[in-house]
Amino acid sequence: MLRETIQNRAKDLLPWARDIRRHIHAHPELSFLEHNTSAYIHEQLDAMGITDRKTVAGTGIVALIKGKNADSKCVALRADMDALPIREENEVPYKSQNEGVMHACGHDVHTTCLLGAARILQENRDNFNGTVKLLFQPGEEKDPGGASIMIAEGVLENPKPSAIFGLHVFPDLPAGTTGFRSGQYMASADEIYITITGKGGHAAQPQRTVDPIAIAALVITGLQQVISRKCDPLSPSVLTFGKITGGTAVNIIPDQVKIEGTFRAMDEKWRHEAHKWIRDFIEQTCAAYGAHATIEMPPGYPVLFNDPALTANAISWANEYMGTDNVKPLEMRMGAEDFAFYTHHVPGCFYRIGTNRDGKEFTTSVHNARFDVNEDALQTGMGMMAWCAVNALSN
């Protein structure tokens, strides 16, 4: 009966959720600057009567919904709130009103789904045991990741959740479907900043210089060999350099070249081994040609690992809630997500909700100026979050 109650309420709340999502979409804010978004969420929680809450990580919010026997168990639900520095090109009534900022990754949808799940759970708190912890998180799109700050400020304590769930939009699937993958799902992501300092001079007299451009070319191509030769070929790993700057003219060898890139892996042990290989290769190559290198590799997001037992349960709950035809397997992805931080502290399940329409509309990928969603997906998102929470509390 609780399943039907949640399904019916999610359906009834769709117009309300659509308005919530459009408001958030029209007023996007960048990572760690989600002040108005946070205030708006506080207003919505007030309207629901969810008053047991506090602000964390600057703009983040932690709130509790207490069912019967509230101290018996706790489950957490998480949504991210931040937008991207993209100028929206969609001509829709809810187009971004903040020039150069856009919800191009669906975080407006995620926040709306968590608000909807909160409303359903608050209305039904006499029908489940335990506590649901709501995490409205800032800064998913920017290192060091809002999740890491939320955790450092104690959001996984008092009470400590036995499981955590998060969802993400997925334009490859139609609205009304969900997708799951157990175990390793998304890659770690570490940024790499390299400065190679040589000795500049005239392009016609290279023997009097230490050419950082030529050395940079050796570093970039050589590091690809390091990754392909040192990594287990059965463990996915990607090293990409997306930016290189240096030089002012065709006939001048510059003093310095800067290189920026990203390293991604699916294995934490190899990830940290690779850091040493990358650093050693850069330093030794530069030294061999008389140059000097400075290297910064600040720790980024870890591997996102979906707990196998929890994910198996979530798939069975999704089958009950949506029907087996609407529950899809997912492929491993080399993209990164700071939800991964939570999965290294408590069992986690990060899953997808389809957002296209019949595979023909709303298929533009995330991080694109024309990204948008079929808002029918909000019904699935709200209901599934609430359904996972009550099942995880009773499991």
Helix content: 25-40%
Point out poorly predicted stretches.
Answer: none
Rough shape? elongated
- The overall pLDDT, averaged over residues, is 97
Strand percentage = 15-25%
Helix and strand content put the structural class at alpha/beta
Annotated CATH topology of the largest domain: Aminopeptidase
How many beta-strand elements? Answer: 16
Q: For the report, how would you describe the main beta sheet?
A: 8 strands, mixed
Oligomer: single chain
The number of domains is 2
Radius of gyration: 24 Å
Distance between the termini: 17 Å
Sequence of strands across the biggest β-sheet: 1-2-4-3-5-16-6-15
> CATH homologous superfamily of the largest domain - what is it?
Zn peptidases
Which key terms come to mind for this protein?
395 residues, alpha/beta, Aminopeptidase, Alpha-Beta Plaits, 2 domains, 8-stranded mixed sheet, 4-stranded antiparallel sheet, 10 helices
Can you offer a commentary on this structure?
The protein starts with a helix and ends with a helix. The chain has two domains: 2-186 and 303-394, Aminopeptidase (3-Layer(aba) Sandwich), CATH 3.40.630.10; 188-296, Alpha-Beta Plaits (2-Layer Sandwich). With 395 residues, it is α/β, with parallel strands linked by helices. The protein has helices spanning 2-12, 14-26, 35-48, 107-123, 146-152, 212-230, 268-288, 308-322, 340-343, 377-394, and strands at residues 53-56, 60-66, 74-80, 131-137, 163-174, 178-180, 183-186, 188-197, 201-202, 237-245, 252-253, 256-265, 292-296, 304-306, 327-329, 348-356. Helix content is 35%, strand content 25%. The strands form four sheets. It has an eight-stranded mixed sheet, with helices on both faces. A four-stranded antiparallel sheet has the order 10-12-8-13, covered by helices on one side. The protein has a two-stranded antiparallel sheet with strand order 7-14. It is elongated. The mean pLDDT is 97.
